[in-house]
Amino acid sequence: LVDIVNLNVAFLLAFIGFLRIGKFTYKDLDLKDIRRFRTENLTRRCVIGLATGDYFVLYLLRSKTDLNNEGVNIVITASYNAACLSQHMANLL
């Protein structure tokens, strides 16, 4: 059940946040260097602000539009329907 919820959240996040699949997936080879993995890939620590349930912020560590390599914040607001990513994310975390 957790895998299904995790996959649903990943697909909703990609769709709503206009993310490419490479932003939220990885290969086994990527895990060989855990320090690099944590600096380049999305993890649960990249999700900020779920306490209110009205929105959360997804912090992308790297983005092709981030010219200064400072990271990019994507604000995802609640939609209060079956596809509400904020609710699904809160249930997962």
In brief:
Keywords: Membrane, Transmembrane, Transmembrane helix. The chain is of the alpha+beta class and 93 residues long.
Kindly name the structural category.
alpha+beta
Report the portion of residues in β strands: 15-25%
Shape: globular
Q: How do the strands of the widest beta sheet line up side by side?
A: 1-2-3
Transmembrane segments: 6-22
Keywords: Membrane, Transmembrane, Transmembrane helix
Give your account of this protein's structure.
- This protein is α+β, with helices and mostly antiparallel strands and 93 residues long.
- The chain has one domain.
- 32% of the residues lie in helices and 15% in strands.
- The protein contains three helices and three strands.
- Strands 1-2-3 form a three-stranded antiparallel beta sheet, with no helix packed on it.
- A hairpin with a 6-residue loop joins strand 1 (47-48) and strand 2 (55-60).
- Helix 1 packs antiparallel against helix 3.
- The chain is globular.
- The model has no long low-confidence stretch (mean pLDDT 82).
- Keywords: Membrane, Transmembrane, Transmembrane helix.
- The chain crosses the membrane at residues 6-22.
What is the secondary structure topology, with strand pairs?
Layout: H1 2-16, H2 34-40, E1 47-48, E2 55-60, E3 72-77, H3 85-92
Antiparallel strand pairs: 1-2, 2-3
Keywords:
single chain; 93 residues; alpha+beta; three-stranded antiparallel beta sheet; 3 helices; 3 strands; 32% helix; membrane
